[in-house]
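Handout, page 2. Input:
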Amino acid sequence: MPIYTLPDLPYDYSALEPYVSGKIMELHHDKHHAAYVKGANQALEQIHDAAESGNTGAANMLEKNLAFNLAGHKNHTVFWNNMTGTKDEEPLGELKAAIEDQFGSFEGFQRYFEAMCAGIQGSGWAVLAWDSLGEKLITLQMYDHQGNLPLTVFPLVLLDLWEHAYYLDYLNVRADYVKSWWHIVNWEDASKRFDEVRNINTVLAK
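Output:
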């Protein structure tokens, strides 16, 4: 079976400046994301060894390690593609229409999303997602990398709110980081994700 690998960034480290510095991008991708990839592969190897040997006393810890590290890997893979140095600061097409329907307006969505970011306690992510069961957009506070994420939900836009994502640039002022992040959201990528998942058949989950 293939192992998880660290994907390349889809742009140069400095491509998101001045909103996110090249130094943060280098550390965030090459150190933090790489550690989650390594952790996910180690957890899978340890689960295999535990199952094969019958030494399953650490199964609970191994499952938590896998969930944490694999979610960290997958979240970051989406997160990198959710940002761009090309300025296109509003969603278009069907995604824009869905946001306006669910939140009243794009500006209303921004206000709510910013408040949600401010309310995350400790480390986590803010997420705009498609609920394939309810067939609607929803917002989520995701704790650590994996907590509070319902089944049948597909993330469209993820914002990393761990301090390592912004501290070198914004210190502890998370609100300034969030406001800057709006300038680099890749709405084209989010729209593609929306188009891919909104027609997924969830009949088995109903």
